[in-house]
């Protein structure tokens, strides 16, 4: 697999991602790149402002992800891709590194910001994961904002579904094109990017992580990926690290990637950089693609991925923001 690990040491307090995939500068218009960079920067500022004001890492994660969920550029919330049946089904999860409390939702259709419903599951119920109509009923009781399904319909995502249907692929096409075209026997697949995530470290030393997604274009049978699965797509533990993943979800579930990274740090004493490289290698060795963001308890970060690019950004405790898109 292609290698593109990134790790930095220092006083980082918040990291975000907007999905990984075949993201090449030659295929990006200046206007589109500027729009992605602006959205990522806005998300970073929103999360940072929460932390600077003394807010919790959970508050910062939720705020940063709201920005990305509300932006149709990303496959989460407003920009969710369509299933085979022409619907939008959203998944999300969040975890508190201080208490190991966690919440997740899967297959919801009318929740404006799934990350907020995931947090409500964590804080207002005895459960960790809720799905489908039951999760939506709980959302109404918990006061989480509900919208009509038409809110999620965007022309670009609808056109993406029509193209996928026309190609009559035997497999559902991932929003980040994590099934390489040669594996499908299809050429020139139009790549879709978007799963979003955030990890944060607050002034009290508490870590948190969250992930939100619209899943796969043309997915069938109520398929659920890694994003709402605690330990696979999301994990946070104050003693080690906070992690949010993006990629071919089945491989992240099978490798329990987010928890595996934490375990490598706890049991083997690896740095966040080395643990990040190791778990992405495991994904690649099995045939999966993607990346992750990780922030340890000391403010060190890693952003490894094995694709051509990953939308990502960081902010230090001094407020220095950096936004990156391409592999190099």
Automatic annotation (TrEMBL):
Taxonomic source organism: Chitinophaga chungangae
InterPro entries reported in the protein's UniProt record: Ntn_hydrolases_N (IPR029055), Peptidase_T2 (IPR000246)
CDD domains xrefs: Asparaginase_2 (cd04701)
Protein name: Isoaspartyl peptidase/L-asparaginase
Superkingdom per UniProt: Bacteria
């Amino acid at each position: 697999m292609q290698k593109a690990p990134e790790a930095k040491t220092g006083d980082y307090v918040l990291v975000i991602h907007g999905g990984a995939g075949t993201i090449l500068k030659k295929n990006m218009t200046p206007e589109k790149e500027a729009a992605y960079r602006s959205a990522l920067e806005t998300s970073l500022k929103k999360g940072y402002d929460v932390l600077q004001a003394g807010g919790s890492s959970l508050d910062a994660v939720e705020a940063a992800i709201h920005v990305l969920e509300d932006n149709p550029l990303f496959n989460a919330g407003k920009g969710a891709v369509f299933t085979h049946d022409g619907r939008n089904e959203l998944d999300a999860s969040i975890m508190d590194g201080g208490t190991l409390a966690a919440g997740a939702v899967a297959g919801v259709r009318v929740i404006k910001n799934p990350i907020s419903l995931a947090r409500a599951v964590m804080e207002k119920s005895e459960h960790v994961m809720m799905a489908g109509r039951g999760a939506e009923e709980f959302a109404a009781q918990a006061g989480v904002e509900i919208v009509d399904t038409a809110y999620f319909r965007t022309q670009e995502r609808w056109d993406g579904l029509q193209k996928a249907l026309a190609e009559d692929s035997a497999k559902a096409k991932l929003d980040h094109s994590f099934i390489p075209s040669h594996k499908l026997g299809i050429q020139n697949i139009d790549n879709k990017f978007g799963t979003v995530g955030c990890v944060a470290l607050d002034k009290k030393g508490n870590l948190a992580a969250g992930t939100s997604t619209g899943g796969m274009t043309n997915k069938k049978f109520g398929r659920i990926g890694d994003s709402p699965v605690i330990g696979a797509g999301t994990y946070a533990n104050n003693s080690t690290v906070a992690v949010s993943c993006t990629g071919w979800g089945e491989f992240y579930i099978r490798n329990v990637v987010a928890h595996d990274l934490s375990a490598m740090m706890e049991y083997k004493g690896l740095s966040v950089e080395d643990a990040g490289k190791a778990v992405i290698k495991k994904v690649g060795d099995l045939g999966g693609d993607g990346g992750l963001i990780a922030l340890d308890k000391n403010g060190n970060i890693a952003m490894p991925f094995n694709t051509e690019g990953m939308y990502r950004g960081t902010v230090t405790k001094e407020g220095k923001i950096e936004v990156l898109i391409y592999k190099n």
